[in-house]
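Q: Got a minute? One more chain.
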Amino acid sequence: MSKTMCQSCGMPLKKDPNGGSTNADGSKNDKYCSYCYDKGDFRWKGDKVDDFQEFCRKMMIESGHNRFMAWLFTRGMGRLERWKK
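A: Always. Here it is, folded:
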């Protein structure tokens, strides 16, 4: 089933500049964006969603988003497939 947003960070997959991530065999992965997943492995090695949210907020602020929008875009990450336990 194709998702419309990355199941790690929540970014809309249509906004991914690389057109999505790749699996270890080079095939396209339709669950995760290329910022989160590449060649069959997650780029963020941590396992705590709180740490990942903080990392993403900092990256968004550095790239020009204001603090409120960065918080808003990251607040629902715990409900995404990667972080559900």
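A: The first helix runs from residue 49 to 62.
Q: Perfect, thanks.
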